[in-house]
Amino acid sequence: MKNKEIKKYYKKNIELINKYNKFYYDKSKPLISDQKYDELKKEILILEKKYDFLKSKNSPSEIVGFKPSKNFTKFMHRVPMLSLSNAFSEDDLVNFEKRILNYLSESENFEIYYTAEPKIDGISASLIYKNGKFIKGLSRGDGKEGEDITKNLETIKDIPKSILFKDFPEEIDIRGEVFIQNSNFINLKEKFANPRNAASGSLRQKNPKDTQKIPLKFIAYTFGFEKGLKEKKQSEYLKRLSDWGFKTNPLNKVISGVKNLIKNYDEVEKQRANLDFDIDGIVYKINDFDLQKRLGNVANAPRWAIAHKFSSNKAVSKILNIDIQIGRTGALTPVAKIKPINIGGVQVSNASLHNEDEIERKDIRIGDIVTVERAGDVIPHILFVDKKKRSKDNLKFLFPKKCPSCGSQTVKEFNLITKKNDAVRRCTSEGYECEKIAIEKIKHFVSKDAFNIDGFGKKIVEKFWNIGLIKQPQDIFKLNFKKIEKLDGWGKLSVENLRYSINEKKNISIERLIYSLGIRHIGLENAKLISKYFKSFSQFKNLSKNKKFNELLNIDGIGETQINSIKSFFSNKINLSVLNALEEVLNIEDASNNNNGKFKDKTFMITGKLNGVSRAEVKSLIEENAGTTVSSVSKKLNYLIVGEKPTKRKIEGAKNFKITTIDQKQFLALLNKTS
């Protein structure tokens, strides 16, 4: 499919989903099933991920809910009503907790307590109380602005109109879910598609008397704006809600540890069919409000909460073959080619096998009958093998010890962090000698966070490579456009558009260029750290000459793993020739400096444990104010921030270099000092 056709197809899907949203949210009359809607939404998100040039303000990746109806007065939420990130597996939960621990700068031994609450499939509502009186009720709307549905909410018996308790906050937005019990929905089947739509349609009636006829329920689970809330934990807050007269979910629990979350998830899923209300997963929230505040939000969702969905679909198929895919870092990934099957309305012909160890652990063989699972947007994977149906001819799969593309040896590298060999086997080719790695490297080079060349997607990379137009990144800026114009599907206009897009990207920042090189373990954040340290591309490139790689240890956030990757990159002659060629054709911008910051040209280092704040937070504050953080003591250091139990070596080093040492209070005073 051509880019023009892809854009047209994408636009059509965006128009469709907005049409469905209007009927679903605004009119409470779904035009398609939830399953079909979810499939369309997933397809849009997959397209956006696959093609960098696709973007729409009306995309499900950009919006929350639907804009408020014209039938109701609009009202701004004092605190936005955000959506939740989704988890579909234990690995997703493990990664969720890891992200939290990393952000808080805590070890894996740090115990996090969560509230686990079944996610009722209803309509979100926000109840505004002032001096104990219910004064206004809002729908979620688009998350920022909701509909004033006060009169309709007042008809619900579960919502207290006046609360006389002395400990009730002066002001608070109590948030929860409006729903209909399955036993009550039986009488509404002719009017509504499902209980969720029945709740939505009933709550948004123009006449409150019509709403009153419907047996709506309300369960409270969180709050937005508050003034005077004394509770410090979600579990305490839920208990107080009950005391104040609100209904809360009876299945709510406080749990620590991912294993225990999974155990509870399995137990609730078994009860699901017997519940008198629809649930589509379990919501996990960090129990401690102080931790919630520290973690804050990202995009349209909080960092401290996640929805563990039940939406998994399974089917049985046959493994026809096992292919080996090679990524830009040389990773060999096995993929099962399966007999095409329909899972949740989607035709599936591939399933991920993850790595060599996974094949051995599950004893997966070509010809096996297997159960395949597709959960949410997760790539389909094999749950288990039906060994009873295994033929004697189904031989064990031998993972290649040589790269299928270039013939180089494949190895499992020793991991410096885990002190074990990696599960992933990799091609030992370091540069562009391996065709498959080279193609993936160039795909990465033109990707969204790298050069982001409009109209230069993955398929174009593969096509241009196969006909010999590009073999290395610099070839992109020396393309034979006359030859391209003669290709099928290309004309003068499309060629000119491509030429323009390429020329437009010849100006690039040093951080994006470093990231675009595809050096293993050097993501965008690490590229930013490196660019800030070296300032210019020529200084970075000089690493190949001076070999002072240990100098990189001065960069806070760069360790041995990253340094070894950079060493390997610079040890390859083809990589060096690529750097030189790119420098000739590009205008590379030096690292930008925040000239207005309080800490301009100042370097900081942190040693010891800080009180009530993580290193990541302090580091962020320093960088926001144009400062730099380093990880070793040198003459370049201006301030050493000393916390509890500091490293003696760093204290002594600071004394030797006559560096100013400050504690946490002195740092905050320095931060708050007016310039």
Structure overview:
The chain has 24 helices and 28 strands. The chain is 35% helix and 22% strand. By secondary structure, the chain is an alpha+beta fold. It is globular.
Q: What is the overall pLDDT average?
A: 86
What is the CATH class name of the largest domain?
Alpha Beta
The major beta sheet can be summarized as: 5 strands, mixed
Strand content: 15-25%
Overall shape = globular
Q: Into which percent range does the helicity of residues fall?
A: 25-40%
Gap from first CA to last CA: 57 Å
Structural class: alpha+beta
**What is the correct CATH architecture of the largest domain?**
2-Layer Sandwich
Identify low-pLDDT runs: none
Calculate Rg over CA atoms.
29 Å
